[in-house]
Amino acid sequence: MKKRDCRIAEMLARQKKHVSFHTPGHKRAGTDITELSYSDDLSSPRGVIKTAEEEIARILGAERSFILTDGSTSGVYAMLAALRAAGCKRIAVPTFSHISVQNGCRLLGLATVPVVQNRERGVPVQPSEAELARAVSEADALLLTSPDYYGNFPPLAAAREICQTAGKPLAIDGAHGGHLHFTSLHAGKYADLWVDGVHKSLPAMTQGAVVSAKSVRFSGLLAESVKLFRTSSPSYPIMASVEYAVKYPRNEKIEHAAEALKARVLAYPNGDWTKLLVPFGTQADAAQRALESRGVYAEFNDGNYLCFYLSPCTKARELKKLERLLRGLPRESVRENVACEAYGCEFLRGDRKE
Q1: Count of CB atoms within 10 A of residue 208's CB?
Q2: Against a cut of 0.70, is the pTM above it?
Q3: Is there a smaller number of Cβ atoms within 10 Å at the N or the C end of the chain?
Q4: Are residues 274 and 310 in contact, defined by beta-carbon separation less than 8 angstroms?
């Protein structure tokens, strides 16, 4: 990708040396700057940031998209605030939603209608169509997680139809699905409002994310709500990295290699190539220690599975090393009663601490 394709990065690269009588306090010329005459303003974009957000919206299939430097959490809060402004008071929320969903509802005074999720193979599975229909009938809007931390997807087309028939909005927390905009599984193909957490599965800096709206109606509400939750001092390097990540080309070679590796190591059969879940059961802690002693760190250990989080930047040689090390590690059957939240998994029940 050429530098000129990333508007914010190109603007920063053109920066001239100057004396810094402005924040930040390190006083060094570079990419970490504040709002200056040439740098545009995220809270009221008129220049390169406006152009970047418009191009991101086109890529994601949105009416409007908003760059976030505060992570997907601020995007979830903004979606909930937009739903509240649209008159929604009760939000149908799956049991294993991220804690930001629960906190956002509490913060905004929104009631939650639980959407029941069960466990299979020790993993929380996505809600059924029947359960979604029941919950939507008792709520004003539906907020799904797609994909979840285990790489599972809800029945997206059915959810869209259920909400459309009921005349109720669908929001999607796609914090772990930023890499999916090339595919039919992307949240933007189904939701009225959605978050792409691009730093998790695309080459963006930590805290980089995007929140988007499909229609003019919700884009106006979202434009107002993002102002409530975004920092007034956004990081320009993070902004530039978000634009770069959304525009990053698809790496189908590593996608195919990942799917092939899943089959060879008998990984959990999910639908997301970026989440390689290897079952270890009671041997999970020992496997984690053994891998870390060889310099390999997994995304999480939930007491059953080790999750290895991939991205378009993952190298084929790294997958080969991982496969070689996995081959010699003992495994036991997974247990159904192990609570994933006890092991640092991000998708938590509302009554647990992040």
Answers
A1: 31
A2: yes
A3: N
A4: yes
